[in-house]
Design brief:
Strand content: over 45%
Shape: elongated
CATH topology of the largest domain: Immunoglobulin-like
CATH architecture of the largest domain: Sandwich
CATH superfamily of the largest domain: Immunoglobulins
Radius of gyration: 22 Å
CATH class of the largest domain: Mainly Beta
Helix content: under 10%
Number of strands: 17
Structural class: mainly beta
Order of helices and strands: HEEEEEEEEEEEEEEEEE
């Protein structure tokens, strides 16, 4: 009897009970923000087994003109689809990002569909963003600036107001770029990061005691 019990314990440790990955997040999330603002979501994909899962991820979007929506794995940010290898037992952080249009209110949604390539198991999460109702105080007109394209994969073009400085920070708050050239007129600054990773960055334009911040997404 003792031998049978020991064998059962060994087999259970070598071949754990199988269960699929799970999304550690609500399956449907809805938020309201002001036009021109950004919506960001973070969640985890969890694999409880000692296994290696190849997860194929697809994005299905329904967003207004002028909006953009993207998602990020721990390795990269992407616009349509990506593949991620999850080594269990462990969890991996994912994120979804919306950039809305400043001029026209609207609403949009994006679903992220996760499929285990080995088993065919599928699960998904849906994000919905609306700018129809909530209006907040706007940045003064004299300090508004544009960044295009955003997200970008090679260079981003900034149109900076007269007398303002441009500084770009990473998610840790470290300064990665600055242009403090004084100009009495609006100027254009081209930012082409060379040795930075795909990530979210923050562009800060400041002058005359007024500051404006815009989120920039760099996708290699």
């Amino acid at each position: 009897m003792r031998r049978i019990v020991l064998i059962a314990i060994v087999l259970a440790s070598v071949f754990p009970a199988f269960c699929e990955f799970e999304i550690l997040f609500d399956r449907y999330v809805s938020v309201e923000i002001s036009p021109g603002e950004h919506a960001d979501f973070e969640f985890y994909l969890h694999e409880p087994n000692r296994s290696v899962d190849t997860i194929y991820i697809e994005l299905h979007k329904d967003i207004p003109d002028g909006w953009s929506a993207t998602a990020c794995t721990p390795w990269e940010c992407f616009f349509e689809h990506a593949t991620y290898v999850l080594f269990g037992p462990d969890s991996a952080q994912f994120s979804a990002h919306f950039i809305t249009a400043d001029s026209v209110p609207g609403e949009g949604s994006m679903s992220m569909v996760f499929t285990n390539v080995h088993t065919g198991f599928t699960d998904s999460v849906v994000f919905e963003v609306s700018t129809l109702a909530k209006i907040t105080e706007r940045t003064p007109e004299r300090m508004k600036f544009s960044a295009y394209p955003n997200p970008f994969n090679s260079a981003c073009r900034f149109e900076i107001p007269a007398g303002a400085a441009l500084r770009i920070y990473d998610e840790t708050g470290a300064l990665v770029f600055s242009d403090e050239t004084f100009s009495p007129q609006e100027r254009v600054v081209l930012w082409a990061p060379k040795n930075l990773t795909s990530s979210v960055y923050f562009a800060v334009v400041e002058g005359d005691g007024v500051k404006s911040v815009r989120k920039i997404i760099f996708v290699k």
